[in-house]
Design goal:
Number of helices: 15
Shape: globular
Helix content: 40-55%
Order of helices and strands: HHEHHHHHHHHEEHHHHH
Radius of gyration: 25 Å
Number of strands: 3
Strand content: under 5%
Length: about 375
Amino acid sequence: MPRPPRYERQRAGRGRAGTFAGGGAKAATPRPKPICKGQQRLRLVKARLLGKFALSPGCHLANVGLGRVGASVDGILSAGTLLSAPLISVFAAPWQREHFLFLAANATIAGLIYYKTSGRPSIRGALRYCLPKRLFFHQSAVIDYKIWVINWILLVALTPPLVAIGTGIFKASDFLFRLAAGVDSLHFAVTPMWIVVATIANLLATDAALFFSHYAMHKVPILWQFHKTHHSAQVLTPFTVNRVHPIDMVLTSVTGVALSSIAGAACVFAFDVNPTVTVLGLNVFQFAFYLLGYHLRHSHVWVMFPGWVGRHISSPALHLIHHSADPRHYDRNMAQIFTFWDRAFETLYLPQSKEDITFGIGHGEDDDFRTLGDMYFRGFRAKGKNL
């Protein structure tokens, strides 16, 4: 019997409305959820380094089953030290500070402050309060936007060496832990208590790295010449956080990667996995810190946390004081999250009430940082003079 034409065979194999002739509806094949280019790039970087492992975004126990090297690499990425997303998707990259969720949460806080302090609140008034043209179109803010783009490119180039450094430090730390203890792992049970301890320990490692690198930028004269780029901002917007010199970027990133890798190695040695709880790739406590006013640290909005929290957690207002050109505020409030670092090094300044602040370097040096070239090369010229 001759075979029917192919199109007839296809029609015979199907019934009407997408059903098989043999009966029953054709099983619908679920489409995979689309992922942004940033997630694709992140998975590619991790797949190349680890062979086959890649974490899904969301709330989970970080690094479960990834192995020792996997835990170190994922810890680096989760710490937010790498920018592997295309520029257009930075606001959707879950490990970024600029994630739209953080920006929206901080804008909501600013809106609530406006509603509480305004006599006749309105939507137009709220927009003007949260996004004042005099700030976001200021010459200083425009330079911030340019620096943000340039530094993003530099950080993408910095990604491979950071991963290599973090992996090397993790392996060395893991080897030393096993050598000192004489065993491959302590095999502690991952209980709720230890999950909390590990999560806080990893947060402290990141916060310590940020404080000590920041402290060095203010206290080491050569490093201060480059850190002036950040303090030269005359107005503060959420983009000012990225107004940093590449020397600052390298110091902060390497310090953060090093301490995070050591903390991750300690957790993996103790538990075989790193049980740090993360949300969107960030430590859950760091995630909460980003939600509750992080971007207001570089803004015109004064927010001081109340009571005990305000004394022990760095409020946005404390960082506004850090940017003050008033000599009373020089080298104050360098901590990122916990104020006990500043208290220990006698750099803490707790305001009793709202203060009027003029931002800048002071000492008449603000005019030295007017152009994009000044931001990147003034520090080298000053260093040469000092030498």
